[in-house]
Amino acid sequence: MPENMRFPETFLWGCATSAYQIEGSPLADGAGPSIWERFAHTPGMMHNDDHGDIACDHYHRFRDDVKLMRDLGLTSYRFSIAWARILPAGTGAVNQKGLDFYRQLVDALREGGITPMATLYHWDLPEALDDRGGWLNRDSADWFAEYATTCFEALDDRVPLWVTLNEPWVVTDGGYLHGVLAPGHRSPYETARVTHHLMRAHGAAVQAYRAVGKHQIGLVVNLEPKYPASDRAEDRAATQRADAYMNRQYLDPALKGSYPPEMRDIFGDAWRDWPAADLEQIRQPIDFLGVNYYTRGLTAHDATAWPLRARTRRVPQATYTETDWEVYEQGLTDILTWVKQRYGDIPLYVTENGAAFYDPPVAAADGVHDPLRIDYLRRHLRAVHKAIAQGADVRGYYLWSLLDNLEWSLGFAKRFGIVHVNYETLQRTPKDSAKFYAEVIASHGESLSD
Ligand code: PNW
């Protein structure tokens, strides 16, 4: 007898996207430029010189995209709000047209019975704030709280689920350590500082929400369970550092009020001990935690890998996605149950999970066949079910992504969507994986039993 894969009746079935990756028209209707606007138009930063000027043109086609979501049977949708559409200079004057766009989107979702989850920061800091030091400026927490409050006041009557930050680790590692994401800096000193300022901003936004909001707010982190590549002591120590760096660096301050002890070992002088009052501000009770999961890290010691002295090992017999991530679904079960074990009972959402595999730029007459993506999704949805069976309080799953979109500096070449986008015509074509997901949703997961 196959195991019954039915999910709880109230489980939310969603897709996730982010503003700069899908909307296009980043400067329309009074919006200010963001750091991604600047980065994407800096020669050499983007694959194929791609940029978000048009992207999926969701800004003009959002009603059609909501129709696609209804056809899929989605019960929730996670999107992000572009800070510089709301506050073109980052602080100060509010741009009503920016708020109107998101209000219309949210109203269309609700008419379709789709619960909105809004992310306040998915990497697109207003350029005007970057010119004032951006996340390196200690005032950034206040800037963020001002922006967050503006959004709460305008939209909390119709948005029941809020996210402060998307993946602070990626912001710091990609944006300030390795320079592959905006704003493209490379400094361990900056990285350590930005981590702390992002976490303070998170805390400040949660505090602001308690003053004006009536629903739920949480944090989204990308987690990668780290496993030692061997039993050797140096591989085990490297695994601990990698886990501290990617996973505990954000969850420990948010949920326990301290940074992991390994941080100084990793960053040396660049790490600082922060004032206790800061840590208190960071540790605000949150209503849920969002977990983005793509892969695991089989970890080995490597003295040349700066500054972590650890590297993810390739697994010869494993399947890899187009972004070179090992397909390892057990890692999703492991990380969800690890969160419960380390941080206690907290409502969880899988706020992103999905894969880029090769799909042709133009859909064929009979659609887009993406069996590898279906296989990836089936394995990971079963892994979520397994985590629930083991006691993790998982309340929803958001597939990354609804549409093929701008995969940041990797450009449009990496396709994560279950709906294909033709970037010449902007035509949408649901892939086979969209039909697969619609069946999962319609059967509350029971179709995963086959
Ligand atoms: C996430 N990593 O980014 C983001 O939230 C999305 O905007 C993005 O499109 C999606 O995943 C797919 O990449 C990540 O290196 C980027 O571990 C890098 C990592 C994880 C997540």
List keywords for this structure.
450 residues, TIM Barrel, eight-stranded parallel beta barrel, 14% strand, globular, binds 4-nitrophenyl beta-D-glucopyranoside
Strand content: 5-15%
Unreliable stretches? none
**CATH homologous superfamily (4th level) name:** Glycosidases
Indicate the overall shape.
globular
What count of structural domains? 1
Fraction in helix: 40-55%
Biggest β-sheet: count, sense, barrel?
Answer: 8 strands, parallel, barrel
Protein model, in words:
This protein is an alpha/beta fold. It contains 15 helices and 13 strands. The protein has one domain: TIM Barrel, CATH 3.20.20.80. The protein has helices at residues 19-22, 35-40, 58-72, 83-86, 96-111, 127-130, 140-155, 168-177, 188-212, 233-256, 262-267, 276-282, 330-343, 371-389, 432-442, and strands spanning 12-16, 76-80, 115-121, 161-166, 216-222, 226-228, 288-292, 297-301, 310-312, 348-352, 394-400, 419-421, 428-430. The strands form three sheets. It has an eight-stranded parallel barrel, surrounded by five helices. 4-nitrophenyl beta-D-glucopyranoside is lined by residues 18, 21, 166-167, 170, 222, 292, 294, 352, 400, 407, 416. Residues 18, 21, 166-167, 170, 222, 292, 294, 352, 400, 407, 416 line the site of 4-nitrophenyl beta-D-glucopyranoside. Its EC number is 3.2.1.21. Substrate binds at residues 21, 122, 166, 294, 400, 407-408.
